Amino acid sequence: MLFVQKKSGFSVCCIGAGYVGGITGAVIAEKCRDVDVYVVDINGDRIAQWNSDTLPIYEAGLDAIVKRTRDRNLFFTTSFKHAVGSSVIVFLCVNTPIKKYGADRGRVYDLAYTEKAVIEIMKHTDSDKIIVEKSTVPCKTAEKIRALVEKTKKHKALNIEILSNPEFLAQGSAVGDLLDPDRVLIGSFPTDRGSSALGKLSALYRNWIPQEKIIASSIWTAELAKLAANALLAQRISSINALGELCEKVGADVLQLSGVVGKDRRIGEKYLSCGIGFGGSCLEKDVCCLVYLCDYHGLPDAAEYWRQVLSMNRHQKERFTRKITEKMFSSVSGKRIAVLGAAFKKGTSDTRDSPAAAVMLGLLEEHATLAVYDPVVSREEILDALGAKKGQAVSVCDSVEDACRGSSAVVVCTEWDVFRKIDFERVYSVMEKPAYVFDGRNILDRKKLAAIGFDVYSVGRL
Predict the structure, then answer these.
(1) Which H or E element spans position 36?
(2) pLDDT, tens digit (0-9, with 9 covering 90-100), for 324-361
(3) Do both 30 and 146 map to the same domain?
(4) Residue 342: is it exposed, middle or buried by C-beta count within 10 angstroms (0-12/13-18/19+)?
(5) Are residues 81 and 112 both part of a single domain?
(6) Positions marked active-site
(7) Domain boundary among 285, 313, 341
(8) Which residues of the chain have a pLDDT value below 70?
(9) Can you give the pTM of this predicted structure?
(10) Given the DSSP bridges, would you call strands 409-412 and 436-439 parallel, antiparallel or unpaired?
(11) Beta-strand (E) ranges in 219-368?
């Protein structure tokens, strides 16, 4: 039974129509039919996309949910006045990128969007509300938000509570992660009002999530939890990549190694895939913030530990690019190279900090000509990911075969399932010779490729 009825006028609002806000709003609307959900953004073009047949992001299962709920109890709008004014719970889902200017650039989050969102919320707040940190933020952000609320609220009698409810979404499986999460973490201030607000948000989630999966904590623990989770995931990826480099030197096979190690129940099998490093909008950013926090609080050894996770990730992308050049007679200048995959991982169209982009930029620096194909990422997104390096040296193709025709090498940068099914005999027939395959995701059958005639390199394998 739902804890509210629509006739009561209960509504929630997600500030920010990006990845977190759009998906969070859609799933809440799907599971809470008697709750009106508003996703609001100042970007009118983005809102128009959410209201169209072509959503601004790709995520498995999202399109069907949005079509079922849009204009039923899910509304995408630019009207902060209505969306915020009518909502009891307001989720902060705005972008919190790494700061790219001034002091501590490249090390801390830029909270400019968060500040603007809170100020905008308070402009349209005439009743008690719960503001929920959803986007990843550094520790003690809730304290800053609470102080800003006190300075900007219209009436001193207004009760505005702050909660931390970090998203633990993995791109490519985000809808499933929200429908059936491992846990839902809610942090509150240690007050009666804080506990009451936590109870209300918990009740919202109990519409589809069992109580035992909903964890209450202090607000500082909740803020740190997302950083900790992503740092540990990044550490595992860098660890297996470091072991993969050693495997190449001693003649071991990293696939066999990760398979054996992953059977240990203390370790597990996830995030032990050797490849070209991690990417996306979260892992590197969150580890950077953790490094800064450790430095700020006088923990240089801890800071250096996490700094090495980032260093290994950069090394892996650079090493893969160097390996391509070395294998191809120490030069890729003027050679056409087919790059398969631009997204940072399968299941998403996101190219932010994609290892594929890093590899492509490295090849362009060596004067290669690139033919790129991704089954989901658009031409515009691929070229945007390459920034100033786009131009005649990069062509975006409509199929695997188009990308491979006339190419000297195939470079697999994203582990899309469709790439496992490629007819490589056909591909070999339309390529220049000698023909190379560089498998940056270890998804191809090396023996079959070699039998066809390819010179094959797979990360962490001889």
Answers:
(1) strand 36-40
(2) 999 999 999 999 999 999 999 999 899 999 999 999 99
(3) yes
(4) buried
(5) yes
(6) 282
(7) 313
(8) 1-9, 388-391
(9) 0.90
(10) parallel
(11) 336-340
